[in-house]
Fold F-box domain-containing protein.
Amino acid sequence: MTPDRQSRLLLLEVPVDCVTEILLYLVPEDVLRLSRLCKALRSFLTQKDSRHIWKQAFANLNGPTLPPCPPNLTEVQYAHLVFSNDCHGCGKRPDLPVDWDLRVHYCSECELTNTIKFDASQPPSLTCDPSADIRKLIAIPFNPAFLNADLTAVTAVYEALNAHDRLAYRDNRHRMLVDTRIHARECRAWEARLVELARAAFNKASPNIKQAINTKLSALGWAEEIDIRGDESHYESADECVLVLNAREEWAEMKPGMERLMASRRKELAAQAAAELLFLSSRYLGFF
């Protein structure tokens, strides 16, 4: 029996009220994970009747207050934007942050495919109305760009309107984009605050983390390589990225990367010793 089939049968055996009661205690990231667990849960959590579950999940968040879900996104879409690392285009893990203005999370390839960049001094206009300022019709981030899909959708609506209705449409779109930019600014501030708090928490726990890693590496025979230059400043700079990326990972996952780092340090130490020996031998030939 497939995992999806097992999950579906398990869900069917639990009363909906009980499932809902459990879900009401979760945060959006957890609800999002459950919605991807099987078709039954996905169907249940993406229907309109389950909207209150997502609303409560956002209310359960601790820490800095996340800006509310914008009116043109569903709670499911907002949770996906904020808490998922998947590219909105291909589903891979992107190497770029969330674009809060465009409300997308693209990898480098999908960003090139799905956005149009332009010179800020020469903004493009709609082909059907060159007088229409595209920046007042389509969401554009600080780096001048917009989504292909937005341009297509706006152009289709705009072409179907008469001159009077076009003015009203432009005004409505402009007001909506102002709200979008305000919301994006609030999201960036929220994200920056999270990073600030995470950095503070890591710095507080850093000595204990370093000591634990130091002990494990020493037990594996890497004691000399932990601090090549004999000072704490080198230790900080050499493995800062490893600690930051892996501080919350299990040691089993950290071990290969840390041992590669130690092996690199061992080579560095050997090269340094060889250079010193060469220097000394050239100065004091009688001693060698």
